[in-house]
Amino acid sequence: MPAAASGGTEVVAHRGASAHRAEHTLAAYELAIEQGADGVECDVRLSRDGHLVCVHDRRVDRTSSGRGVVSTLPLAQLAELDYGHWHDELPESADGLVLEPLAVPSSHPHSRGLLTLETLLGLLSDISRPVRLFVETKHPTRYAGLVEAKLVALLARHGLASPSRREESAVVMMSFSSRAVRRIREYAPQIPTVLLLDRLWPARRDGSLPPWADIAGPGVHLLHRDPEYVSRAAERGYDTYCWTVDDVADVNLCRDLGVRYLATNAPAATRSLLTDR
Ligand code: G3P
Ligand code: CA
Fold this sequence. Notes:
By secondary structure, the chain is an alpha/beta fold. It has one domain (10-276): Alpha-Beta Barrel (TIM Barrel), CATH 3.20.20.190. Helices cover 28% and strands 16% of the residues. The chain has helices spanning 26-34, 75-78, 117-125, 146-157, 178-187, 220-225, 229-235, 248-257, 267-276, and strands at residues 10-14, 39-46, 52-53, 132-137, 171-175, 193-197, 215-218, 239-242, 261-264. It has an eight-stranded parallel β-barrel, surrounded by five helices. The two termini are 27 Å apart. The structure holds SN-glycerol-3-phosphate and calcium ion (CA). SN-glycerol-3-phosphate is lined by residues 14, 41, 43, 56, 136, 196, 243-244, 263. The site of SN-glycerol-3-phosphate has 9 residues, from strand 2.
């Protein structure tokens, strides 16, 4: 992937435009695209019968009308649940960011069902401009390794696993697990990778990454503590992907530090903040 010298900040819609729409629903991704996001982020897990589904938590309890552990439920059962109702009553706000009232109606019934990665890939291939997909593999112990293998196989079926150059890849793969990132590099060497960081391990403080990672992925809390981290990573040739940036001060900090990819729940508000200043 390009080093820090490349381009400006790219806005990545975290779980879709999830400040306005229930996370990981088709409605959230449609809105992110409508709001001009450069990229979209999603988390993937395996259902009991081996389908890649876009769900953040280990269980479906928080984000659906049902209960249970994703990896113990078959696709058909996961698909019976409503993934939008829990968000309907929430105020449309993200910390500190002014969100515009939306002209679009609240989640469409058929846009709030279970989202599979296959459906999300279909949505992204049907639009007229490139929107990069940042896929994060969650790793239930029982499926460690399999989720990455299934993901690469699915991308291969869609012609996305072997871009001629990493810089041109329509997909970026990410994990907090260095082992998972390593497996991704092994299975699909041309797909760029982000090593997500929720703390700066002593070995990573100098901005270095293992050879199988291309982009540094610190949480924004780490940049508040150690703003120099971005330039140390850049000196080593790494761009930075920062999550999850939903606060005016965070957006300004990321822009001033030269963060390349900015993951936010509110892409439109973030974009206007980046453009205005
Ligand atoms: O984009 C990375 C970020 O999503 C990691 O945290 O918990 O939201 O998956 P989480
Ligand atoms: Ca994630």
